[in-house]
Amino acid sequence: MSKTVHLIKLSVGTEDVAGLEAWQSQKRAQTEDGLPRHITRMWPKREDEILNGGSIFWVIKGVVLCRQPVLRLDEYDSADGIRRCAIVCEPGLIRVEATPRRAFQGWRYLPVDDAPCDLSQARQHEDILPIELTQALAEIGVR
């Protein structure tokens, strides 16, 4: 039986969770069947582990704030002829405990034991704090 591993990725240019949701609602950020996707240059070598219940965790302005379960990895051929990977996710974002994360390039594997916990169902719909306050609270360990 295959283990599970997650991915973690910076959401570059995104100001908050609502901004990521808005981006994913655009046609250019979706597959032909309307699912959100993120296109990346590198194909994950641990594909089976990702597809065994893995999610992509999104870092927004230095803080992990949400995740999306990964449904599949599609091949994406760009105009430049380079094979790319489209990480296709379930629609909707699941908020997680705010966790600081330093900047990095591309995506990284995230072991299940290191992944931030989901916020409770009651907290999923709370008003989102300003990102600067979320960052400050996460830095001192308040989630």
Q: Would you mind describing this structure in some detail?
A:
With 143 residues, the protein is an alpha+beta fold. The protein has one domain. It contains 4 helices and 7 strands, in the order E-H-E-H-E-E-E-E-E-H-H. Strands 1, 2, 3, 4, 5, 6 and 7 form a 7-stranded mixed β-sheet that branches. A hairpin with a 5-residue loop joins strand 4 and strand 5. The longest helix is centred in the C-terminal third of the chain and has 9 residues. The radius of gyration is 15 Å and the shape is globular. The mean pLDDT is 88.
Query: Taking Cα atoms only, what radius of gyration do you get, to the nearest Å?
Result: 15 Å
Strand residues, percent: 25-35%
Mean pLDDT: 88
N-to-C SSE string, H for helix and E for strand = EHEHEEEEEHH
Share of helical residues: 10-25%
Distance between the termini: 33 Å
Number of helices: 4
Shape: globular
Q: Biggest β-sheet, characterized? A: 7 strands, mixed
Instruction: Report low-confidence residues grouped into runs of 5 or more.
Output: none
The helix/strand class is alpha+beta
* Quaternary class: single chain
What is the number of E strands?
7
Number of domains: 1
Pfam families: DUF1489
InterPro entries: UCP032025 (IPR008320)
Protein name: Lysophospholipase
Put the structure in a nutshell.
This protein is 17% helix and 35% strand.
Write the layout of secondary structure elements.
Elements: E1 5-10, H1 17-24, E2 37-40, H2 47-50, E3 55-60, E4 63-77, E5 83-89, E6 94-100, E7 107-111, H3 121-124, H4 131-139
Parallel strand pairs: 1-3
Antiparallel strand pairs: 1-7, 2-5, 3-4, 4-5, 4-6
